[in-house]
Amino acid sequence: AQSVTQLGSHVSVSEGALVLLRCNYSSSVPPYLFWYVQYPNQGLQLLLKYTSAATLVKGINGFEAEFKKSETSFHLTKPSAHMSDAAEYFCAVSDREGFQKLVFGTGTRLLVSP
Amino acid sequence: GAGVSQSPSNKVTEKGKDVELRCDPISGHTALYWYRQSLGQGLEFLIYFQGNSAPDKSGLPSDRFSAERTGGSVSTLTIQRTQQEDSAVYLCASSLGQGSETQYFGPGTRLLVL
Known about the structure:
The structure holds 2 protein chains of 2 kinds.
Chain A: E1 3-7, E2 10-14, E3 19-26, E4 32-38, E5 44-50, E6 56-58, E7 64-68, E8 73-78, E9 87-94, E10 103-104, E11 108-113
Parallel strand pairs in A: 2-11
Antiparallel strand pairs in A: 1-3, 3-8, 4-5, 4-9, 6-7, 7-8, 9-10, 9-11
Chain B: E1 5-7, E2 10-13, E3 19-24, E4 31-38, E5 42-50, E6 65-69, E7 75-79, E8 88-95, E9 104-105, E10 109-113
Parallel strand pairs in B: 2-10
Antiparallel strand pairs in B: 1-3, 3-7, 4-5, 4-8, 6-7, 8-9, 8-10
């Protein structure tokens, strides 16, 4: 069975600092991997996805993530945090076969201070 | 174009009542998913529809939960005899179809069972 582990339920950074949100996955088959962001009282918005092309994936709002098979990781980074980045971030994994239901991590709340 | 829409945005009901939650997927999307987001369980898959195929109901937590999709478009999630533990945000997502890995989420319906 697939699973995702997000380390740290809360991450605090200062505006302008590096953002690093950690995600490790477990999958018996090559996975699809996703990062979604959720702003208060809103649905999930796709930030970026890995589908086996380039291992370094660039997404919206300056975020990127690197797929590292040897470490079973897909960490999300952004060089310089903005106040508007404060939100909850979810890592998710799905199968390449079948109907590709998403299995989500528990989420990481990013707090950005001035 | 229009995204996934859900109604109502908020629903308060009394324990034991039935509720219906509606999802309008993106036009042309043949795959539709329901997820539940709750404090205790995080984000969890409920049910999946693909075209005219039988739905995958493997995530439904009990037989009080059911869903249908009429005409391959609008979907309704029904919860019978609601319990307090059903309180959660119910999220709907759609995608182009099997083999298309990107799911687009609606804003969710926040359900509170008193």
